[in-house]
Amino acid sequence: MVARRRFLKLLAALSFSRVVPARATDRKFSFDSYPFTLGVASGYPTPDGFVLWTRLAPKPLEPGGGLAPAPVPMRWEVAEDRGFSKIVASRAEFPGPEWAHSVHAEVRGLEPDRWYWYRFLAGDAVSPVGRTRTAPAAGAAAARLRFAFASCQHFEHGYFNAYQHMVADDLDLVVFLGDYIYESSLRRNQVRMHERTDEPVTLDEYRARYAQYKSDKDLQSAHLAFPWIVTWDDHEVDNDYANDQQEDGTPPEVFLLRRAAAYQAYYEHLPLPAGMRPSGPAMQIYTDLQWGTLASFYLLDGRQYRSPQACPRKAGGGNEVDPRECIDLRDSTRTMLGAVQEAWLDRRFTSSRASWNILAQPVLMAQRRSRSGERESIWTDSWDGYPAARKRLLESVVARKLVNPVVISGDVHMNFVADLKLDFDGDRSPVIASEFVGTSITSSPGSWQRNMPVILAENRHFRYGNGEHRGYVRASIAGGRFNAELVGVDTVRKPESRALVLARFAVESGRAGPQKI
Ligand code: FE
Ligand code: CA
Predict the structure, then answer these.
(1) What pLDDT score does 5 carry?
(2) How far, in Å, is the centroid of ligand 2 from the Cα of 185?
(3) Rounded to 5 degrees, what angle do the CA atoms 186, 217, 270 make?
(4) Which of 181, 219, 417, 436 is 20 to 30 A off residue 80, Cα-Cα?
């Protein structure tokens, strides 16, 4: 019995991330060139830890990243100071070729609510030093949370210079809301080019696309500075895909092979918890994250489980339709999140103790309907194409008395600030939540931009709309108020650009709806 207890204790001590002094394992390994070309990252802070990420790739655009198909011995270190004089956790890792020599280390046993520094060591190479932090203790009334959210970074549309401004901000967290890569090329007007202009389909092709994006220094610096939490939209796989449906009508069993490759490459290049590792074409990325009792984040997956878009133009994909003519839209069984995620979210709402509840999700939730003459139109890829699912979600917010709900969204490459209502057409329908839509890091807005005055006039629940700038949103929660600053850069056609605050909005605790300040 005693021996068994001692054995269990030993096992616990081993799995606990303490300093392991022996470095014999990695001394012999040497690389032909620097292996940390894709930078380092951290994510998913909890009160006692976070996830650390890197991927060894001396030649990032080559299959295998320029490494032999064998595990590589390496280690990571977490310190209380930038100079690593006080290392508080360290562990050996042996990333192998199955997951592109990526590491997803879940560090535990740290102090709540403080900053740490981390680095990776492999052979004689040392990674850049990243900075990250733990979340406040569970149940602690944190005074303040500062975060940025961003989405949509088409490499060919321009430089990710918005991140140069983001890293100068005083933030706890970055939330990315989808379109981390783009599968398709512009084929004209490129500011810079995809290495390969064909769409990726195989695992090696997606890995190469991610590797090219991850080679961007501005993107690397934003990962280096803050922990990230992420969700995806369509372009991580294919434009406007829905569940197992591709817009061009590829048979589902064929498309699912492509989705599996894309999901795997996504996992391999982001600081996701190891528990999110995909299995074939299935990968659960929806989750929640607590910031003491101040805020809860709900990271939602709007792609993997959704019903096909209503009334498509082609075999599948989004379409501009007149809602009065599209019968599919009235089908109450259609879903954006899928039944399992929807039920999970409703349960999380029921148990939430947070003062602010942030729904981080990819696509526009507010109704955006435009008229021209007799014709009305909505875009079916966003929540407008899933009106029954949107109503169920907002009814769940009301029924569970969710405190201070704020939705943050991406996808449309424009800033919007909106009141969310159960009935967008009913003037008497109360405002039940606020929505902030970030613009894009680089991706250009579509034709909506020209229609902005009309959109704002015809959709009175929009408090603001602007398609002129690329950028991100700087948000903070403190003193019973949610603040949002919409940050825009002047140009993404140059490596550097000035940034300005386009508008400031606040949501007061207990009063749904954003107010311009
Ligand atoms: Fe996008
Ligand atoms: Ca999108």
Answers:
(1) 54
(2) 14
(3) 80
(4) 219
